Amino acid sequence: MFGLGDFQIVAALAGCVGITLFGVVYGTVNWNRGSDPRKEEAQMRCRRRSRARRRMKAEGRQ
Questions:
Q1: What is the pTM of this model?
Q2: Which parts of the sequence are annotated with region: Disordered (predicted)?
């Protein structure tokens, strides 16, 4: 039926459909979820530190 002659083909088709459904549900649930402000602040601190390190390295003070 449907040209599915082997169990592996059925498993691959079921896996593709399952992953697609998971992606759609996950995307729907997380569509408008904002990011955590604490995480954004941590990323900004990390960028500032690496910028300062690069500046110090360029000036020869390590």
A1: 0.51
A2: 35-62
